[in-house]
Here is the input.
Amino acid sequence: MRNPWLARNPWLSLWLSGANVMFGAARAHAQRSASRMMANNVASAVSAWSALLPSPAKPARKRTKR
Here is the structure.
């Protein structure tokens, strides 16, 4: 006797394909958001650390004879 639970179901296949597309888009959106937040955090950390460093000394100007 054939098991009815193992038979192919086109409606289930369509539903799963749609769910896969939806969850894939949601996952991509979450990854973009996370990478954007990481980039902002790295940029703010770099600017905070670079603000603590002293600025380089300006080179002395050469005097011209008059």
The CA atoms of residues 21 and 27 lie 10 Å apart. The longest helix spans residues 10-52. Helices lie at 10-52. DSSP finds one helix and no strands in the chain.
